[in-house]
Automatic annotation (TrEMBL):
CDD domains: GT20_TPS (cd03788), HAD_TPP (cd01627)
Residue ranges crossing the lipid bilayer per the database entry: none
Gene3D superfamilies according to UniProt: Glycogen Phosphorylase B, HAD superfamily/HAD-like
Database matches in InterPro entries: Glyco_trans_20, HAD-like_sf, HAD-SF_hydro_IIB, HAD_sf, Trehalose_PPase
UniProt keyword terms in alphabetical order: Glycosyltransferase, Phosphoprotein, Transferase
Annotated Gene Ontology cellular component terms: cytosol
Keyword Phosphoprotein: yes
GO molecular function: alpha,alpha-trehalose-phosphate synthase (UDP-forming) activity; trehalose-phosphatase activity
Protein name, per record: alpha,alpha-trehalose-phosphate synthase (UDP-forming)
An example Gene Ontology biological process: trehalose biosynthetic process
Catalyses which reaction(s): D-glucose 6-phosphate + UDP-alpha-D-glucose = alpha,alpha-trehalose 6-phosphate + UDP + H(+)
EC number: 2.4.1.15
Top-level taxon of origin: Eukaryota
Length: 857
């Protein structure tokens, strides 16, 4: 039998054996006995490509979720299981949007616990019949994973509930966290059994599997991986309280595409990445992306839709029509308001009931006319909070009915037992208005279902005695804290905590003109019918394909341990500078030009004390003392500061204020590289900068002879960045007719004379070396921000000109992996200094060797 092959397990299951293979042991099943993994680094080798050739020519999507879209029932004789599709599962419904040419494989858990002795047979049956790969979890491990970490920690926190006491969600428990990581690892192992990493797409769903992307990316660096979060993502002030906040963010960033229902959720995620990981995002041609170690992680914002075809087919069932007829007779002469919610603390059922009570108090004319039907679905979680909600809901409903009820009239009809789908549909059909008052919900598709059902069918129109020529109508009162709210522009949006406001919204929904109800329904219906689950899935797949199209064009390798693992992806022409390589080139060349930035290159940007270290001074001295070298230090700092700091480096050429001032030796006079008539523009720019400084805590103004610089490194990241954009626009508009350039850099906005740039310094360096009579055959240029790109451009373009030797070795190097005109990079200032020390050591060694070979006089 063919041995285990990650890319061909499905072929083996279907009997289609590949042409290649090795004999070996039976396909193993992933071990799922109870256990916690604490060491995530059992695989120290990081694959850059797949394990073998592809055997699948058809596009394939592996959909991974906590639960498979499968219903399992024990056979009547107790021997074996019967399986069927769960038609209500979103994971099954989204298949309609992927196209018939896309094969879909599902990975997830079953709702029922399967005995270990039956797991192999069940796995084979599901794989062959449904293309499903079940993940079996031991009961204890599943409890810690799902009811523990997911429901006690992530779910409350993502719904803005802080564990301020043990009763409110519970304190963070590292054992539960380890269980969560363990289960994600088991899911990753299951994916590895079926994936063809060169061709397959993987789509992971929801907060249960947030660290799964790290395990997959670690095994397959170029895996095509998407993730969609179906819950809210909280603001940074809430999320930052999670002890494993960085681990979850970095794990999600190992996906290629991350999807959210609303812009608010995406904005909160991006804010967390900026505040906690220091990552900035940018929007290009309508797409939002985060640069993460050379990879672009795309952000998708699109609310999920419903399966309209399924709803319309259920509307046509005889059972639905019969139930609608029953409800029509049962609730005749009553106006029905409908609520459909899970019985949990965030759905706001009790707030809805209180609003109903307030409606009957403030508007007695609705008594004995309006009925609130509240369908309370069984809670998905468990615990004291669920019991409290159930108790409060029943108590409140009972009190309202006792206060306002009359013989034959109950203002609140509470249905807290499971309903068949067609029964729920029937309530949608007869309801005049649908109420969703959740205090926090990721999406909530109830309003979408209601709108489709209110469109009805011809047969339902006959039952309800509606004229086919009269436009349909519906009304929605929705909480502003649910994901579907922004897409329902015709709904009445409410703050569910404001009971009076919700009651007034209910009254408005009842008294509004019929024509207005019809217009609102038509608007909602057009949106829901065109933005169904198929549209959502197809859009996500298209964006995932776009996000992954450059995978084969980049070199990839993994770094980091555990959940800190990430993949560096770089263009094939952009690579890390090898110290051995540059030292070797340095030793064999005769005329060298070295151009160095200071802040962010020799000195870290985060350092408070910017004075150069003794080691940096010693290194620069050694480089300057080598007669084959011309060393330029170029900085945005003023000339007085640079003169003091580098007074001991006699031969160091210093360019201050980005090249406006230049000094060739320590005893030489400073000269200006660019002629500037006057600096009257400062009188216009400085008051504007002062205005923004007063309004932005943590910002400051640096006044130079040739420039004004506004710094916001110590301001709030989001506010500082926003203020910098405003300041840039303000200065550009005011200084339009002045001979200056206004530019933004790393945490700065700078105004300086036109023509002043580090590119001018680079040209001066090359001409200085040429004056020695020898063309440079070694050029090293290092910088870290946008201002240094001018240097890189000059140096790289000089390779084809007369200023360099035809055999010159050119090293344009930036700090960190980012888009740059440089061809090389080093990770940080520590690596830069270490490389420069290597060059200085080579100079010292060559000087000593030359001295030992010189005969005594």
């Amino acid at each position: 039998m063919v041995s285990r092959s990650y890319s061909n397990l499905l072929d083996l299951a279907s009997g289609e054996f590949p042409a290649f293979g090795r004999t070996g042991k039976k396909l193993p099943r992933v071990m799922t006995v109870a256990g916690i993994i604490s060491d995530l680094d059992e695989e120290n080798t990081n694959s850059m490509t797949s394990d073998g050739p592809s055997s699948v020519t058809q596009d394939r999507m592996i959909i991974v979720g906590n639960q498979l879209p499968i219903r399992a029932h024990r056979r009547p004789d107790g021997k074996g299981w019967n399986f069927s599709w769960d038609e209500d599962s979103l994971l099954l419904q989204l298949k309609d949007g992927l196209g018939e040419d896309v094969e879909v494989v599902y990975i997830g858990c079953l709702r029922e616990e399967i005995d270990p002795a039956e797991q192999d047979d069940v796995s084979q049956t599901l794989l062959e019949t449904f293309r499903c790969v079940p993940t079996f979890l031991a009961p204890d491990l599943f409890s810690k994973f799902y009811h523990g970490f997911c429901k006690q920690h992530l779910w409350p926190l993502f719904h803005y509930m802080l564990p301020l006491s043990p009763d409110l969600g519970g304190r963070f428990d590292r054992i539960l966290w380890q269980a969560y990581v363990s289960v994600n690892k088991i899911f990753a192992d299951k994916i590895m059994e079926v994936i063809n990493p060169d061709d397959d797409f993987v789509w992971v769903h929801d907060y249960h599997l947030m660290v799964l992307p790290t395990f997959l990316r670690k095994r397959f660096n170029r895996v095509k991986l998407g993730f969609f979060l179906h819950s809210p993502f909280p603001s940074s002030e809430i999320y930052r309280t999670l002890p494993v906040r960085d681990e979850l963010l970095r794990a999600l960033l190992n996906a290629d595409l991350i999807g959210f229902h609303t812009f608010d959720y995406a904005r909160h995620f991006l804010s967390c990445c900026g505040r906690m990981l220091g990552l900035a995002y940018e929007s290009k041609r309508g797409y939002i992306g985060l640069e993460y170690y050379g990879r672009t992680v795309s952000i998708k914002i699109l609310p999920v839709g419903i399966h309209t075809g399924q709803l319309q087919s259920v509307l046509q069932l005889p059972e639905t029509e019969a139930r609608v007829s029953e409800l029509r007779d049962q609730l005749k002469d009553r106006i029905v308001l409908l609520g459909v919610d899970d019985m949990d603390i965030f759905k706001g059922i009790s707030l809805k009931l209180l609003a109903m009570e307030q409606l009957l108090v403030q508007h007695p004319e609705w008594r004995e006319k309006v009925v609130l039907v509240q369908i309370a679905n069984p809670a998905r979680g468990r615990g004291k909070d669920v019991q409290d909600v159930q108790s409060e809901t029943h108590t409140t409903a009972q009190r309202i009915n006792e206060r306002f009820g009359r013989p034959g009239y109950k203002p609140v009809i509470l249905i807290d037992h499971p309903l068949q789908f067609y029964e729920r549909i029937a309530y949608y059909v007869i309801a005049e208005c649908c109420l969703v008052t959740a205090v926090r919900d990721g999406m909530n598709l109830i309003p979408y279902e209601y709108v489709i059902c209110r469109q009805g069918t011809e047969r339902l129109d006959e039952i309800l005695q509606l004229s086919p020529s009269v436009p349909k109508k519906s009304m929605l009162v929705v909480s502003e804290f649910i994901g579907c709210s922004p897409s329902l522009s015709g709904a009445i949006r409410v703050n569910p905590w404001n009971i009076d406001s919700v009651a007034e919204a209910m009254d408005t929904a009842l008294v509004i003109q019929e024509s207005e109800k019809q217009l609102r329904h038509e608007k909602h219906y057009k949106y829901v019918i065109t933005h169904d689950v198929g549209y959502w899935a197809n859009s996500f797949l298209q964006d995932l394909q776009r996000a992954c199209r450059d995978h084969t064009m980049r070199r990839c390798w993994g770094i980091g341990f555990g959940l800190g693992f990430r993949v560096i992806a770089l263009d094939y022409t952009f690579r890390k500078l090898s110290v051995d390589h540059i030292v070797s080139a340095y030793r064999r060349t005769k005329s060298r030009a070295i151009l160095l930035d200071y802040d962010g290159t020799i000195m870290p940007q985060t350092s408070i004390n910017k004075t150069p270290t003794p080691e940096a001074i010693s290194t620069l001295k050694s480089l300057c003392n080598d007669p084959k070298n011309v060393v330029f230090l170029v900085s945005g700092r003023d000339k007085i500061t640079l003169s003091e700091w580098f007074s001991s480096c006699d031969k160091l050429v210093i360019a201050a204020e980005h090249g406006y001032f230049l000094r060739e030796k320590s005893d030489a006079e400073w000269e200006t590289c660019v002629s500037v008539a006057d600096f009257d523009w400062k009188q216009m720019a400085e008051p504007i900068m002062q205005l923004y400084t007063e309004a932005t805590d943590g910002s400051s103004i640096e006044t130079r002879e040739s420039a004004l610089v506004w710094h916001y490194q110590y301001a709030d990241p989001d506010f500082g960045s926003c203020q910098a954009k405003e300041l840039l626009d303000h200065l550009e508009s005011v200084l339009t007719n002045e001979p200056v350039s206004v530019k933004s850099g790393q945490h700065i906005v700078e105004v300086k004379p036109q023509g002043v740039s580090k590119g001018v310094v680079a040209e001066r360096l090359l001409s200085t070396v040429r004056q020695k009579g020898v063309l440079p055959d070694f050029v090293l240029c290092i910088g870290d921000d946008r201002s240094d790109e001018d240097m890189f451009e000059v140096i790289m373009s000089a390779m084809a000109g007369p200023n360099l030797s035809p055999v010159a070795e050119v090293f344009a190097c930036t700090v960190g992996q980012k888009p740059s005109k440089a061809k090389y990079f080093l990770e940080d200032t520590t690596e830069i200094v270490r490389m420069l020390q290597g060059l200085a050591t080579a100079s010292d060694q060559m000087a000593r060797a030359a001295a030992s070979q010189t005969p005594p006089q």
